């Protein structure tokens, strides 16, 4: 940020003209309140700038005392509130867990009662008749089962009724009047029993199996006997369950207890309804699949403290305990009043002793220390700014001068490093030419000695063009077109040297690629590597393919041959960690030059399948045209 840039205050009087619907300029209205606030802010800044450092520290000390007392009072209130909430959560959770265990034990007792019925002699005999389809003993079985029903109800008083549906008839206590217009096999209970195959519980509903329309909670389960299509329906009295839960929580008047399913619907219809916000999405967000716990949630302007526990006999049902946070913490208001009084007294004391303790408030010095910390984190753009002319400000101006000198030194180092990188790049390029020139001149001499003058002449011309393109007027960058022509001349020379050894193909996906800038003498070392190592043990049939494409503002180059291949993993490791492996001179040469010219934006990936495809895949950023 420029040192001359000044930040405008939110209450600034600066206004912007607007255009009304008639196309005329008008000035926006500025309220009297905004004007007074802006004037007051300007006056306060002017007075503050004229104060000495000591008086500014006095003002800061008074503010520090006020903030400290406010923070202490707020923290005291917060700690007290959290302790009360934690204790309340723990107590509520213990009560809730106990209630859940009671319900689980009651469910176990009911299952035991049902199992006792299933192993009783009358039920076993009835099951055999039902499996055989014998209906003539129905009334005898009905009478014999009454004692089993009575024992089950005595063992668990919350059982309202027990109903058994079989193919030969229905069985229930003789003291109940059956609702003949309602068939179990035509009911949703039977449909769900066929789908789940497991015992399931049904939320509070009117008992349609028997007359009286009592509200019940039902357990539906299939018999374990050999008789197919035989089901138990155990109805529990809803009022008895509700009474049991209410009795356990009468000591906490500000606490509401709910038995709901995970969709937020009430299991007991005669209990208060949960707020509409406590729906399925709410429960999934705050509870999920947890078995028990607690959390605090804000609903509109009220905050609720919620404990929950999952019932083991039906994991889809939850016990929720909801308490109002405001009611719970209403006795802590005295802390707020005490904080205000203490703050007032301490501010008065601060005014009396501020001159003694003002030396501890050196705000400008702290600001300078913060800037030095940023410089320590390599942020050299920071500058010390102050409207004051005190000693700390003078130190700050010296600090700014020091940063300017450091920036100048860094720029000089960067220029020197840039020149060093250019020198290293030229040195790496120089390593390529002698190696290639030595091999080519030997081949030309051999051709001339054997009388192949035309081939020798062609090779000399190609070599001349090769060096002309390689020199590139001393420039470090060339175009893709010239680089391709350079490697084409090289391959032409090698084809004359090694007749029928290989063919080559150069593919460019888009003509616009040919005009892009590229590091010179990059492809020739790669194809030379294919000839010297890939085709070393081949006499014919070699193929070299060079393909250039562009993707996502990057140029992608693939050099591929069908030679004997290489250990791609080991060579890739030698590129990334030069000290581990010294093989792959040509590849390492090109890779080092790529890092010098493009830095971390360039990549080289190697892959190899012997006599199938050995590839060098290079990706470099597109930097525009030369």
Automatic annotation (TrEMBL):
Keyword Plastid tagged: no
Subcellular location: Cell membrane
Highest taxon of the lineage: Bacteria
HAMP domain boundaries: 359-411
Name of the molecule in the record: HAMP domain-containing protein
Organism: Paenibacillus plantarum
Entry coiled-coil feature ranges: 399-433
Entry-linked InterPro entries: Bact_2-comp_sensor_kinase, HAMP_dom, HATPase_C_sf, HATPase_dom, Sig_transdc_His_kin_internal
SUPFAM superfamilies documented for this protein: ATPase domain of HSP90 chaperone/DNA topoisomerase II/histidine kinase, HAMP domain-like
Membrane topology: Multi-pass membrane protein
Keywords: Cell membrane, Coiled coil, Kinase, Membrane, Phosphoprotein, Transferase, Transmembrane, Transmembrane helix
Keyword set includes Cytoplasm: no
TM ranges: 57-79, 334-362
């Amino acid at each position: 940020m420029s040192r001359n840039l000044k930040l405008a205050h939110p209450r600034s009087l600066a206004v912007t003209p607007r255009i009304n619907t008639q196309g005329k300029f008008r000035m926006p209205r500025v309220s009297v309140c905004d004007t007074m606030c802006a004037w007051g802010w300007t006056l306060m800044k002017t007075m503050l700038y004229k104060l000495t450092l000591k008086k500014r520290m006095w003002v800061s000390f008074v503010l520090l005392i006020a903030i400290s007392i406010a923070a202490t009072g707020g923290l005291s209130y917060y700690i007290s509130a959290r302790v009360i909430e934690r204790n309340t959560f723990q107590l509520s959770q213990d009560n809730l867990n106990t209630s859940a265990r009671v319900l689980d034990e009651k469910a176990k007792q009911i299952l035991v009662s049902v199992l006792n019925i299933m192993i009783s002699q009358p039920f076993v005999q009835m099951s055999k008749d039902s499996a055989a389809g014998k209906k003539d003993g129905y009334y005898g079985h009905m009478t014999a089962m009454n004692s089993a029903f009575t024992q089950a109800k005595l063992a668990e008083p919350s059982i309202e009724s027990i109903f058994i549906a079989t193919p030969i008839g229905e069985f229930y206590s003789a003291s109940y009047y059956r609702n003949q217009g309602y068939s179990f096999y035509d009911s949703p209970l039977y449909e769900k029993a066929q789908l789940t195959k497991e015992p399931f519980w049904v939320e509070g509903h009117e008992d349609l199996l028997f007359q009286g329309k009592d509200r019940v909670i039902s357990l539906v389960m299939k018999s374990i006997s050999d008789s197919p299509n035989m089901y138990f329906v155990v109805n529990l009295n809803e009022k008895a369950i509700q009474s049991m839960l209410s009795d356990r929580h009468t000591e906490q008047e500000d606490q509401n207890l709910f038995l709901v399913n995970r969709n937020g619907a009430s299991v007991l219809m005669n209990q208060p309804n949960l707020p509409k916000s406590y729906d399925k999405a709410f429960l999934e967000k705050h509870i999920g699949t947890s078995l028990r716990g607690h959390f605090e949630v804000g609903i509109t302007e009220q905050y609720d403290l919620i404990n929950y526990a999952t019932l083991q006999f039906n994991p889809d049902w939850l016990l929720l305990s909801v308490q109002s946070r405001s009611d719970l913490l209403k006795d802590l208001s005295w802390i707020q009043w005490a904080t205000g009084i203490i703050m007032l007294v301490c501010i008065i004391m601060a005014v009396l002793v501020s001159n003694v303790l003002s030396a501890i408030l050196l705000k400008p010095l702290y600001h300078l220390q913060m800037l030095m910390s940023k410089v320590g984190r390599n942020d050299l753009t920071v500058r010390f700014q102050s409207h004051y002319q005190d000693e700390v400000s003078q130190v700050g101006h010296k600090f700014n001068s020091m940063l300017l000198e450091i920036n100048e030194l860094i720029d000089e180092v960067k220029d020197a490093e840039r020149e060093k990188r250019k020198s290293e790049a030229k040195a790496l390029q120089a390593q390529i030419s002698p190696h290639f020139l030595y091999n080519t001149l030997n081949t030309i001499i051999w051709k001339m000695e054997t009388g192949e003058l035309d081939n020798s002449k062609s090779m000399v011309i190609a070599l001349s063009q090769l060096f002309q393109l390689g020199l590139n007027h001393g420039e470090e960058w060339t175009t893709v077109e010239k680089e391709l022509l350079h490697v084409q001349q090289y391959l032409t020379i090698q084809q004359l040297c090694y007749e029928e050894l290989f063919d080559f193909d150069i593919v460019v996906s888009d003509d616009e690629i040919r005009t892009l800038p590229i590091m010179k003498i990059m492809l020739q070392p790669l194809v030379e590597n294919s000839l010297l190592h890939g085709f070393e043990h081949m006499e014919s049939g070699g193929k070299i393919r060079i393909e250039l494409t562009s993707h996502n503002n990057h140029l992608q180059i693939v050099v591929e041959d069908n030679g004997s291949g290489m250990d791609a993993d080991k060579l890739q490791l030698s590129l990334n960690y030069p000290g581990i492996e010294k093989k792959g001179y040509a590849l390492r040469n090109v890779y080092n030059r790529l890092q010098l010219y493009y830095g971390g934006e360039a990549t080289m990936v190697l892959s190899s399948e012997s006599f199938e495809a050995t590839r060098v895949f290079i990706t470099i950023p597109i930097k525009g045209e030369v």
